[in-house]
Amino acid sequence: MAEKEVVRTDHAPGPFQGAPYNQAIRIGDLVFVAGQLGISLGTGQLAGSGIAEQTDQIMRNLSAILEAAESGLDKLVKTTVFLMDLGDFAAMNDVYARHVGDRPPARSTVQISGLPSGALVEIEAIAHV
User: Fold this and answer.
1) What distances in angstroms separate CA 90 from CA 30, 35, 113, 125, one per listed residue?
2) pLDDT tens-digit profile of 34-88?
3) Crossing angle of helices 51-68 and 89-100, rounded to 10°
4) CA distances from 106 to 25, 62, 80 (A)
5) How many CA atoms lie less than 13 Å away from 74 in the CB half-sphere?
6) Are strands 121-128 and 24-27 parallel, antiparallel or unpaired?
7) pTM as predicted
8) Which of 5, 10, 96, 113 is most buried by its number of CB atoms within 10 A?
9) Which residues contact 4 (CB under 8 A, 6 or more apart)?
10) In sequence order, what are the beta bridge partners of 35?
């Protein structure tokens, strides 16, 4: 049986306010990435006030974490997108599509009632190694 391996990179924000979780866990040939907000590593703040800027930053954070796990956005198999407002779906989807290429993963998208730091979107992911 494969051992659970913690994935950690300094190229993406760490757990929110020191919460007890990891950026990702690799087990066997799968990587499970914790939900990412559009937090800029340089500032520690949201990358912008709009859905496009936040989604773009999330995808860059996911990419950095997946790279640390010897994977990448091209190996995503499932994502879950949490939106504060489904009215932002089209704008989020435009940015998301640019990052996942022509063979996007399976995806669920849901509207929720709140996210930390006033974020508009959070994305969690599962990828193949």
Assistant:
1) 29, 20, 19, 20
2) 999 999 999 999 999 999 999 999 999 999 999 999 999 999 999 999 999 999 9
3) 30
4) 19, 16, 9
5) 2
6) unpaired
7) 0.95
8) 96
9) 25, 26, 27
10) none
